[in-house]
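BUG: 3D viewer hangs when loading the predicted structure for this chain

Environment: internal workstation, default settings.
Expected: structure renders.
Actual: progress bar stalls at 90%.

Input used:
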Amino acid sequence: MSANQTAAESGLDILGTAETWLGEGRRIALATVVETWGSAPRPVGSHLVIDEEGNFQGSVSGGCVEGAVVGEAIDVIGSGAPRMLEFGVADETAWRVGLSCGGRIRVYVEPVGP
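Structure tokens produced before the viewer hung:
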């Protein structure tokens, strides 16, 4: 995000990507930061859009957990069932996904479209 681009504008870019991908017939999921604690690098409301091939745009953690979220999103696209994810130092996956800074994050992942 450039210095001149606000978080709201960035969110609109992500939603525009989601709309474009849906128009291309891609199956997608939207991941949204719904809660943070401590030093989580992205604010509540940050988005990541993922297609069934694992392509993504946006950020929910500045790179800390995107890989794990993309993998979960592909499962969500396949099953059609949304899922709440939680990452943090108290979680056994914290060191594997890189939230060693002390933050915690909850991300809601939902399928979008038909």
